[in-house]
Batch of 3 targets.
Target 1
Amino acid sequence: MQRLRRLLKPNPETLHHLLVNYKWLWSIINSVTFLSDSLMTFVYLLRSNAVDSPPLYTSAHEYITLEASYNLSYYARGLPAVPTDCPTPMGIKGKRVLPDPKIVVERLFKRTVFKPEPMHSSLLLAYFAQHFIHQFFKTDHQKGPGFQWGGHGVDVSHVYGKNKHVENLLRSFQDGKLKTQVLNNEEYPPYQADVPGVPMTWMGQVADNNKFALGHQFFGMMPGLFLYATIWMREHNRVCDELRRVHPEWDDERLFQTGKLIIQGETIKIVIEDYVQHLSNYHFLVTFKPELLHTEVFQYQNRIAAEFDHMYRWHPLMPDEFNISGVVYPIMEFIFKSDLVVKYGTKVFTDSLSRQIAGQMTARNHGFLTQSVALDTIENGRKLRFQPYNNYRKNLDFPHTKFSELTDDPEVAATLEELYGDIDGVEFYAGLLSEKRRENNMFGALVIEMGGPFSVKGLMSTPICSPRYWKPSTFGGDVGFNIVKTASLEKLFCKNIPGDECPLISFVVPPENIPSSEKCENCKNDEL
Amino acid sequence: MQRLRRLLKPNPETLHHLLVNYKWLWSIINSVTFLSDSLMTFVYLLRSNAVDSPPLYTSAHEYITLEASYNLSYYARGLPAVPTDCPTPMGIKGKRVLPDPKIVVERLFKRTVFKPEPMHSSLLLAYFAQHFIHQFFKTDHQKGPGFQWGGHGVDVSHVYGKNKHVENLLRSFQDGKLKTQVLNNEEYPPYQADVPGVPMTWMGQVADNNKFALGHQFFGMMPGLFLYATIWMREHNRVCDELRRVHPEWDDERLFQTGKLIIQGETIKIVIEDYVQHLSNYHFLVTFKPELLHTEVFQYQNRIAAEFDHMYRWHPLMPDEFNISGVVYPIMEFIFKSDLVVKYGTKVFTDSLSRQIAGQMTARNHGFLTQSVALDTIENGRKLRFQPYNNYRKNLDFPHTKFSELTDDPEVAATLEELYGDIDGVEFYAGLLSEKRRENNMFGALVIEMGGPFSVKGLMSTPICSPRYWKPSTFGGDVGFNIVKTASLEKLFCKNIPGDECPLISFVVPPENIPSSEKCENCKNDEL
């Protein structure tokens, strides 16, 4: 059976080509439930079977140990580390001494000119990604780059805090709701000063009116993160009101706990049907249907891999300046300025993020503020003894044989060859960032082919997707279950932004907001 | 499909009757691999499907929450707690005020006369149980009876210590081995004084030569536990020697980690094929074959339930005195006397434990030393708002309708009725202990029907059983894999006890060692 599946497993590039072309074919498949459900089940399993569950490796051992399963303080590993007694840092190929990480950043990562995201993805998308992934990418820097302190999955800890203590601080203990305050006639999270004990990370001087108490300690760093934190907080409280309407006898605790279950469900629904749909750019409509896996061999557990963390460092998406309602803020006047959201209001802020194009996830597109993160990524990839970029492709049966295959930019190809000598000697993150863009897609192929499995596995393996959770009563009955099953990005914002009219809520910047210099061929909006 | 399975699900009593009778039939089934494998797969699934995985409930909420899945500090719950607003402590039935726990202990649990285990189980069995289960029953008394501090499963933490720090203290860092010392020409764990920092629990005055550093902090309490700790330590070191023979190039770390994987495998093999086989007393040979589950819908994760912990409080198995090679030690001269094992040697000690009969797990058979534990169990069962005993039977489709069904001892039945009033008002542990013995079995039916699922689920869901672990290379190649696949209780002791001849190593006391007063009808030895 497994051999048969292996035989039927299509080549990644063929499958991708199929999925981003032949729109007429997909519109048929999408409209026939039997076909689309079968294909969706296939996608769930194809992706999640590529992930070891339970995990086999950590960064501490290049062979199987019980620690990999039991010691949650480790990140898992997609591929085991290069053994320490290998002839080169990449194993057997490549240079004996890797290039100075600073040189790698300087020559491969540093933004020379802002490269817009060719599918015209908006900043609303970029911040969605950042807000979502920080709930599970939590490196424990004190222990080292192979360690983490999170819950290894989509546990909504970015909304409710990293543990029960913080959760309790954020709760109002009234009607299940989270604490809020009203500023400029809108509901926002409380100031940190009003909720002592909620850990938040600040850098440099940050004014008290920019210091909010949020579910994740980094979310004060970017107004876009603060916007999402605000919207999800409002959504939780809105859901509690809905639950209270149908269950007037419920106490605060039950409203809170059930609201949290609904928020996890909504998160996954939106991530799959809005966010993953956008990232994949498939004509096939990807759907969130946990029931499709209930009769399949599938593990409802998840572990975050170190490679997934590195792969998801999409800092090139950040522009150097932000246009909020016509006012341009250089990034240094934007970070740690949550009060900009309060000043403009969530409606205008959402609209502005929907109308500004993000940067392309590619070589030479790291803005000056994030180059230090790229440096750190290279250095940590070496400490973690990541296998070379091409081994991750080999593992998925589509290796490169030469630099000109990796990138279609001859200058980047030449730089890679100069820095690494051999196509099998290229570092993981350097390869990922340099990869040529895939047909009709935001990313190179490996981001999709590695990220897909880790994402699908993480999303579908949450407890709520398991057979005994996935039923109306878990979510407070049909009312709650329907909130989950009909959630969308648009509803999430629309229902939580005051006023009669919704702003533009879009992961794609509309054509009228794209400067002619940033227009591109083969973009989402130009497609058939 | 699920409905079909439900229909095919046999009545627990019918199935049990089949399994403990018709020896001729079973000898045929056992000898035909196809039949026995199919039936074993059925048993694995029947048992493990009875356990919620991921778990749905903790003692903190009687409805589904994300905490049940994510907050590992809770024990899970088999059935949710009785809601606090119910009319009686047991829900709707039974008395409004439960009897004083001291009265329950006095009238239902207190040993009047030692009742021998009717299947003639030995003390070697009793200590096997105690040694094995303490790795996962770890109540966090500071937080309360609903909380625990363990790893929720068969993680061999009782051999290697509760965390990496203790594990490191116990390791010699030479050839993968654990630290040892030689006493009376045998290898034993080191004294606690020689390994500062290993946490051990002592009560009263304990001499330094009784204070050993062991994997579990309670294992200094009983010489039988110390015997098992010693044997498993020797086995780990023996396995490391075997591994080093085939992998002379391996370093200490790899030998240790791989040895630990083998020890986990051996543990499960012995628990299923020796221990569970004995407890079940089935004529069907139960087997440890993880590969049978690799194509089935099965979750490789486990959570210890509070009811499983209470159900496994088998203190009646402890006698009041211990006969070691003809010398009789009252229990107060036996506890915290690990040096008795050293004095007599592991061979004589093992032999003696194999020849002494354990107590019966039944009403009025708690020795004076363990009555306080029974009291604690009743009190905590109330704090945890356990549903009544009969609800657990209802949940398995075989409820009792009257007290005379629960027990065949009219006096116990009358006491239960007096204390609880209603068959649906009997407390969980009181019911479990009072239950009549099942046909050809050590226990009442509910212990088997509840314990079976929790046990099978816990054993088969360990990471080593999962498809990507269960292969020779995980265990250092065929040599290690074969050690796991051929492990037995007899080998475990025989290979680790010095001398040419093995002692008696048996979970059943041989007929010649059973005092005539303790002979019983329908015992294992008397069977056809």
Target 2
Amino acid sequence: MSRKPTLAVVGATGAVGTVMLQILSQHADIWGEIRLVASPRSAGRKLAVRGEQVEVLALSEEVFDGVDVAMFDVPDEVAARWAPLAAAKGVVVVDNSAAFRMDPDVPLVVPEVNPHAARVRPRGIVANPNCTTLSMIVAVGALHAEFGLRELIVSSYQAVSGAGRDGVETLRRQLKLVAGSELGTSPGDVRRAVGDDTGPFPEPVALNVVPWAGTLRDDGWSSEEMKVRDESRKILGLPGLRVAATCVRVPVITTHSLTVHARFEDEVTVDRAREILATAPGVVLFDDPAAGEFPTPADVVGTDPTWVGRVRRALDDPTALELFVCGDNLRKGAALNTAQIAELVAKEFTAG
Amino acid sequence: MSRKPTLAVVGATGAVGTVMLQILSQHADIWGEIRLVASPRSAGRKLAVRGEQVEVLALSEEVFDGVDVAMFDVPDEVAARWAPLAAAKGVVVVDNSAAFRMDPDVPLVVPEVNPHAARVRPRGIVANPNCTTLSMIVAVGALHAEFGLRELIVSSYQAVSGAGRDGVETLRRQLKLVAGSELGTSPGDVRRAVGDDTGPFPEPVALNVVPWAGTLRDDGWSSEEMKVRDESRKILGLPGLRVAATCVRVPVITTHSLTVHARFEDEVTVDRAREILATAPGVVLFDDPAAGEFPTPADVVGTDPTWVGRVRRALDDPTALELFVCGDNLRKGAALNTAQIAELVAKEFTAG
């Protein structure tokens, strides 16, 4: 069947959905109809995609009639309920929630790293990784392909938009309170100024960093940290990979950064690592500290690739590399990777 | 000789000097005369210490006449010139610059970790560690004393006051520009708003994180990262310790945070690690994520101890612990540790 497939975007009005509509308007137009879907309270709104105003439909089983591929950017519990219903109608679901990522019958796909995995989907669902994992895995995957990864020790500097629109609005409100003040110099002064207005975060995020993201899992780990470990292992096909992550929220609007200590099977060289990163699809090597070149969120936000800088070999371990990576958590970290997976799947329809 | 020793505070008007005067006013009054010293352009100003207004003297050889102990909080090049001149007059210099830290004839002291080292000072100088090292070394030292440290992999979240008053004022100015805006969502928008006003930082620091602190050393490492490695080794007396640090500036006024992956000689338990941290002098264990307890700069700023939270054992390495530590970079990270060293030295005068 060679025809343009029909796409549904479920969660079209959220922070990730908004970026998704931009991406669909920018990428090659491979889709037939694009149907926008959201919760009933957003139904009837019109949103721009591919230069046209499209009315948002309320989520129901009927909206999936005739749909070939559906991209879901909705909370876990919504995805858990609706993705199987759509899949039961023959829709290929590309889901950006955590609901199915660790399901052994659901592939977890990063097109630059494991594109083949998207073809085998017993439940009709393909999962999109967590934004923190996605912000570094393309670079790490390229190095793994040549050097063989043994261990990852990562620390994140996560933007507030990873917690959705509420995260962004919370930081914007708090910034207005602290800008022009002398706050940040005595214990609790920022907290008192912010009061209970911490939004989706457990502590004030303006003039602060918060070492917590997600919910509490066993032994003091956060769900976000467990995702980085479990998802990295699944994407790379390394079930025994040693991973230790600490996830920290920082007062940045969009673009996650991570420090990465990556240990490989044998000795590595910075020169070869730089060659790999300079030519890897989806990666930009931006690494010349003498010229002031290293990635920061302010430069990377709004762009597609994973930016890598500060490439060094560990001074005391010739098998380990240090990296600083930045990736737009709403683009590659969410909407872009979802769109790339959907485009991979769409080829099955258009290949005829 | 049992008498109250005379103290000189060199660099009394700087960001660290200001905190030093607060600390001298709060601690037990062990000093006789306290002489305040700064550059000639600050001479004649009066500053409050121990409830009295004291006139600032211009730095000269004569200001050290009759001084027993001098605390230096001045740039490296000023310390390199003036500390030996003061020492030649018999003054014990406690220096917070990087000028002497790695000199084998200058002890590098953290009173909770290696107090004995302060007694042997062939050059008459005791060095105070860098603020980033100091923000974690008390906690790490306590664990090392029992478990035996093998490797440290750390990432920093460094406050702007680590770059002095100029750093603080730069972030304050940038926050006024970005608060109330929609900046931080497209490439370079923050940079364009900030223009050239990046102060002591290579990139905008508001709504951003900047993976650079200090100057460029060999193989892409920053001087700040090398200090963490070299100073940790020297303080802990472990010249072969494996250390990998990545230093990143964040938009926080004061208090450095670090993620620490610490690998020890043998298997460790979280229960024992927590006991050690809960009882170690100078450390506060604040670690109950279920109750929302983990340290953040907003809570820690203005306090003396090293705060430790997020204590976990690495899931894939029973010899490694993960920590999140916060320390006020102007207090324990600079002025407080300097004062503590000076107080150790002062006991030699008052012990009689």
Target 3
Amino acid sequence: MELKIGVIGTGAIGQDHIRRFTNKVKGAKVVAVTDIHVERAEQIAQEVGAKFVKTGEELISLPEVDAVVVTSWDPTHEQYVLEAINHNKYVFCEKPLSVETEGCKRIVDAEVKLGKRLVQVGFMRRYDRGYMELKEIIDSGKLGEVLMLHCAHRNVSSGENYDTLMAIVNSAVHEIDVLRWLLNEDYVAAQVIMPKKTSNTHEKLHDPQVLILETESGIHIDVEIFVNCKYGYDIKCEVVCEDGVVSLSNPSYSSIRTAGKDFTGIPIDWEQRFEAAYEQELQLWVDSVTADEMNGPTAWDGYVASVTTTAGTEARETGKRVEIKIDKCPDLYK
Amino acid sequence: MELKIGVIGTGAIGQDHIRRFTNKVKGAKVVAVTDIHVERAEQIAQEVGAKFVKTGEELISLPEVDAVVVTSWDPTHEQYVLEAINHNKYVFCEKPLSVETEGCKRIVDAEVKLGKRLVQVGFMRRYDRGYMELKEIIDSGKLGEVLMLHCAHRNVSSGENYDTLMAIVNSAVHEIDVLRWLLNEDYVAAQVIMPKKTSNTHEKLHDPQVLILETESGIHIDVEIFVNCKYGYDIKCEVVCEDGVVSLSNPSYSSIRTAGKDFTGIPIDWEQRFEAAYEQELQLWVDSVTADEMNGPTAWDGYVASVTTTAGTEARETGKRVEIKIDKCPDLYK
Amino acid sequence: MELKIGVIGTGAIGQDHIRRFTNKVKGAKVVAVTDIHVERAEQIAQEVGAKFVKTGEELISLPEVDAVVVTSWDPTHEQYVLEAINHNKYVFCEKPLSVETEGCKRIVDAEVKLGKRLVQVGFMRRYDRGYMELKEIIDSGKLGEVLMLHCAHRNVSSGENYDTLMAIVNSAVHEIDVLRWLLNEDYVAAQVIMPKKTSNTHEKLHDPQVLILETESGIHIDVEIFVNCKYGYDIKCEVVCEDGVVSLSNPSYSSIRTAGKDFTGIPIDWEQRFEAAYEQELQLWVDSVTADEMNGPTAWDGYVASVTTTAGTEARETGKRVEIKIDKCPDLYK
Amino acid sequence: MELKIGVIGTGAIGQDHIRRFTNKVKGAKVVAVTDIHVERAEQIAQEVGAKFVKTGEELISLPEVDAVVVTSWDPTHEQYVLEAINHNKYVFCEKPLSVETEGCKRIVDAEVKLGKRLVQVGFMRRYDRGYMELKEIIDSGKLGEVLMLHCAHRNVSSGENYDTLMAIVNSAVHEIDVLRWLLNEDYVAAQVIMPKKTSNTHEKLHDPQVLILETESGIHIDVEIFVNCKYGYDIKCEVVCEDGVVSLSNPSYSSIRTAGKDFTGIPIDWEQRFEAAYEQELQLWVDSVTADEMNGPTAWDGYVASVTTTAGTEARETGKRVEIKIDKCPDLYK
């Protein structure tokens, strides 16, 4: 008995997920797709033997759709998630859960009213083996209390539409989620430093940026966001504890010595770096839906990420330290 | 439409494969199992919703079994593989294909007579990302001709029944297969050196051993086999070419600095080290069976491995260089 | 013809330098020593065949003393350096040049008045092979403009007398000097963040601290100072440029695999880490004195370090960003 | 009081040593030089303020020469070493001690007759920090008994005159000395394997070669000698023990990430790799001569190296395992 999935949005990330459900994820198949780009969606539907439907709402209401995946344009996420909740269907939504904190809140409220968690947000770093090893060490207490985290989020290059705002809202949001998951605590303040700008990008983007976060217990976090670093896709996370340091590695499977250099390759993008995490994320989501018990990143996590990126944006605009105020967490998410 | 698999032999490796088919491999399910340990096999059958049958022959003949997996006691491999061929069913057989070179030959002959490849041998190293990267570099010619390979096969410890013979026949056989696949050429001679023996094992095992192989084009290979190295499961492969060196890495996902040491962990066994390769092996086998076109290690590869391990054994016993004579390869395998 | 050196102060660092001059530095010997701890100084004098004299002033005035090394109590540095300048003798002074910025200024003024550089300050990081490689890459322009530096200064543990003030004034001062030397530009602002405090130290020390510096061209620098990190002496410096990153390595000469770990050792203190840099520093100082032409860190560098640590201290006390105002650099130091 | 040194032979290595004695080695100076290339030697003499003399014999007999360094053409080593012994002067001789085993024996006999060790052979690997760390670990017994060593000796390229013979006699001789020093035991047999030949060299050289050695206690050693590896100067030594492995590192001081690669540089020659070892070797030699007590590699070590390289050569020529027979070691060298 395979889980029958409907996918709303067949852009790049939607296609990747469809490919994973079709070729890799055990116990699931895609049965319906939709997109405003009809032709592309119809073709994909045909390739994987799914039905094409005209709207997300229609897809959600199909009786043969057991669970929904939302990979549409960011501003439409909220409406589809709410609709899925209305139909009492599990829904996996790519980040952001909503482009507005209030939208995240509306989703949280809907789940709380229903009294059941149906939503998972696509924060896939939590499924990376490296981050999982970091969490295991931190939770073990072997290195004592965490004091500081030094992180970097580096992309080879960013597109034309990527602007100054997106460095925190679209890129650092991954660190914002995964670090509070690692630490089991929330942020209380944000600050943003704008270093000298690289000449390798356009006018509308100030790149790099440094986001500084402070947690409830006083842990200091700095996250460099540098989306035109040119040399590779490189994610760093160094956790400095009282009795030692644990750091994320860039996994390598072979190394080469030639022409005076001893080197390993660096991934060129997130798929190369995190493909296994994406597959694990979707496999475990399918398993948890099948078991009727959510265990991934929640709507609440989506809300907290939104509050934090909003504070980060204010901190960048004002150049000041901005306090982060998070509502009381409903029991549903504890 | 899932591929329906029957598994003969529910010992450790059989159980691992059943678990993989059940939880990880897309497009397959286990429908029948058998083992001479009836109780264990019955319990496993029940857990995964498969039928228990009394014999391998019965299992192979079941109409609902599309393809067969042989993970039984080594001396029984040949008979089940031949039986599967008789039933014109695809069969995945763990190494060794047969405990005798003549047995491997009989399987090859049966396939040749049938005119179709049905057999895949469980040489899973070919599916490891590290070895695949090595092969890509070698085949690209970027580093020139391969001249030498320095390899090591180290296990934490070996069991009571592991004896001097098995170092080559059961352990180095993995290198014997993967290295000729890497190099696209066969071996012409073997020599074995017996270094000082570790005190960390029993009487019946001389550990470590060094197997030296020479290929058709003159490439020199040394393989250290050390199955009681105590510190971890460690597989090394350094390929020395005319213009550079490419080496297998021990992938790590995090590193720790504490108590004066900067360290990464070492796997404790092959499952930790090669789990992704096992899953990939079985996934691609299922995909190729479904596509009705074998592309993994063949019965011929099983035969060549047997010829080579036999020569290695003679070399160890005589202390001499032993020539390796391989029959002409049938067209079916080219 | 060896350079005849007088050493003022025979505490730990003084003894280390005397040992280096005696056993390692070519072309120099220690001929006179002094210290307020008379007995210890007399014994050291005897061991190396030097004369013991009662005061620094007397030592400086000895005709047989060609050049002076000041390794006395920090608050006495200034007076001995000024006295050496009065006697027109070269003087190597351990950092700080003076405990007050005004004191550094007085030394600069004395040199400017004399019209000759006689003073070298003991900023030995500039002589470390790793930092020299970083400088070579930066200066080559191969990686484009420098945008950010992420640094850490970690000691195993600090003594009873090490307090909150010293993290910047005594520890980060090394980064303050070496980074502006690396970058060929000065700082314009400082900020200090106080993370969660480690439980592995005493009341009077807030450890760790994070010093954030901004340079003239807008380069962002963060320096973690953590003097009770417990695991080892660890100095990090990652230079993020437009087209790549260059990082300081912790040099290792061997690695070990045992008990499930693949590790290299971490130095326990600065002598283990920087011994070669200390020897190079003193050798080049002796060579430059012999050549009658200073080329190491100047009194001006000592002054700038003092201005910067003072701003860092104010930033820590106020929690605010503090501007760094440096006087116009005299021609003597350009 | 500096040790006054006479240098016989002002070719490349002679000049390097003169430079080290002049600029780096404490307590020594070069007072006399000679070479059959008179003009070059005269110029060097002038540069360092030494006397030029016409012959090695004359140099050795000069009353102002305290100790002799022999860096002349290999076939002349023996005569100068014997002459130095005749004059009861300490002599540092570059390897080989003599081009014939019998010549080494004559030197040993002369020392034994004199009853005093005057000779040190230039096996500088023993002074490399990496090898010293290996020895410390081995001697500590922490990893149990040594069972195997896997080594490689790789040069970027070899000159026109470097032929098949020299791979063992001139290159592997370094491993031959340093490994028996590491292990505290001698070799009993040698074998040589000739892998596929690189196309990056000339007719008279078969490159690479693999030298296999067996020690008294049964330790297996393989040494790859590859003097046209093109990519860098790379020395590997992996010591496999009962309870773990210790390996030589290629020390690096910085690393770079650019253009998809994470790399460290590889030295291009032995001076880059071993400069610190050369300096340490000469410093400790000067110290030991000054203390009138030799503690470096002896004439006996030079003799054993000669016996072993001779056996290696025979093994290469015959393709057979050749036993290594070493005379009884005189008490003088125990």
